[in-house]
Amino acid sequence: MNRNPEIQKAFEIADDSLQGVLGYHYYVTAMKKSVDVRKLSEYLPDNVIPHTFSWHRYYQKQDLTGTFESIFESYQSRISLVAMVNVFEVALRKFIRYLDRNGHPQTLNGKKLDGDENYKTHIQWAYLEARKCDIGDKDAISRLPKTFGKIDNARRLRNLIVHNHGLFNQRYKTDAIEYKDIEIELHPDYAAFENSPRVLSRIRLTTDNIVDFSKSHVEVLHVLHNGIQKNFFGFPDAYNYGQEQKLIEWEKVLLGT
């Protein structure tokens, strides 16, 4: 038996893309730490920034550089989180659609899935499928309740970043997936918002948060892929970087070439 090539391609694209997000995060962070801020101004636009094809906005270079000096890690971490969640969301949608295309329609709670459901539904489906996996990293399989909790936390933080300007609201907690034994994870700063909901409370993220979320998404992706290939297509061996002789090819990871 062979791995299903469509499923494997979707997995490898997501796997590479997640590594690309983390590699880019590390690279940009390293550049930020090594750059001479005084030299930035000569490479920035003079006086105005394009806004639309008709309008521009006036700005001061020192305001931009000064602001990034104080908030760079948190802002870059937001960008990395959004990219990471989007990659994983698309991968789950592809898995569901490719399984259906190959004669394995998927259901959740008795309802057929077509890949157009919301991401929250797809995470619940993925959890059930990942729990069926019995090959590969046993520790990763035992961590699924925790890693899926992190994945759901990333989903809710992504939603706040793109829909609420990165500010906490009550929906962040109430929208958490309460399903099977998935562990609900809350950002530690949410407690301050809960105590004073009228005070604007920003999501603060660090590189450590991004590494933690990245590990969770990649680990779950591997468990889910292994389980799908074995349970639906009869391929008995776990995906292994060493056996696949798969080094990190950064140009391929970052540009798909």
Keywords, please?
257 residues; 10 helices; two-stranded antiparallel sheet; mainly alpha
What do these coordinates show?
This protein has 257 residues and is mainly alpha-helical. The chain has one domain (5-241). 61% of the residues lie in helices and 4% in strands. Strands 1-2 form a two-stranded antiparallel sheet. A two-stranded antiparallel ribbon has the order 3-4. α3 packs across α8 and α5 crosses α8 (207-233). The radius of gyration is 21 Å and the shape is globular.
Main β-sheet, spatial strand arrangement: 1-2
| Mean pLDDT metric | 95
Report on the biggest sheet.
2 strands, antiparallel
Gyration radius over CA:
21 Å
Level of helix content?
55-70%
Summarize the helices and strands and which ones pair or pack.
Blueprint: H1 5-34, E1 48-50, E2 56-58, H2 61-101, E3 107-108, E4 111-112, H3 119-131, H4 138-142, H5 144-163, H6 171-174, H7 190-195, H8 207-233, H9 241-244, H10 250-255
Antiparallel strand pairs: 1-2, 3-4
Helix pairs in contact: 1-2, 1-8, 2-3, 2-5, 2-8, 3-5, 3-8, 5-8
Outline of the structure:
By secondary structure, the protein is mainly alpha-helical. The chain contains 10 helices and 4 strands, in the order αββαββαααααααα.
